[in-house]
Amino acid sequence: MTKTPGLLDQMLARLRGQQHDPISYTQPAASHRARGFGEGNAALHRGRLTEIEDEPEVVQLSNINPAPPDLPFPSTGPRGHRSRMRTRVLEHGAGNLADYELLEMLLFFAFKTGDTKPLAKSLINRFGSFAALLCAPADQLLENSGLGPHSVVALKLVQDAALRLARAEVMDKPVLNNWDRLMDYLTAMLAREKVEQFHILFLDPRNRLIADEAQARGTVDHTPVYPREVVKRALELHATALILVHNHPSGDPTPSRPDIEMTAEIKEAARVLGVVLHDHVIVGNGRCLSFRREGLLT
After folding, report:
1. pTM for this structure?
2. Is there a domain that residue 31 lies in?
3. What is the mean pLDDT of residues 234-238?
4. Most buried residue, 46, 57, 64, 250, by most Cβ within 10 Å?
């Protein structure tokens, strides 16, 4: 009985030049690799990346003979490029990567094969920057951008990881003594939001951050805020001080008359119950405005 060559035998035979047809191996869905992870092969010659949702992964070996070992780059294909990029990060860190290279490598986890560099560059061109891309809403990322659910989830996870890291820098520390780090955190969280959001930072007696909660989400230029609810939540958390925070999607952090009036109402309501309002920060695009520093809390 003739034994049918296994996959490894076929691959070795192919690499020795004993056969000329590409080998296509379909990995079963129940294998040890995560089912559905990956967005299919990159079809960049057609100008876009196609996604294969919950399909088994297909690995193909093209008709390339092994390069002599003494050449500088024994492999110049996508696999060789990806390996070199990973080695570069492991040896030198990710800090020396350009934004498009960092995005390109993130997309490796979603697109198992193919050159993701053109997609990375086109996404940064479209959204304006790597940071703006991370902050873009998921539905906007999915809309005509060449991304699929797996890659969008990866990007949103990176965004949230960055926010959690920034928040960790201000947790369990007196925020008034770590003002610059607090501003970095608030900027990362709100500077690129397209609608107004109103957050409250609840502080303990040592001015350490107990919680950062989104109180309301509004429109491009208005967020409804109720002083009674703000003070009620402070009492529930046993907070002794507050910092109000909201963003201006226009990018200009200059406070409006309603901003000033609402701040005065919350300050008075909190004072009656022994809660101090330390500040109200408005986050713009690249600049934050402090009511206390501008003399607007008197």
Report:
1. 0.60
2. yes
3. 96
4. 57
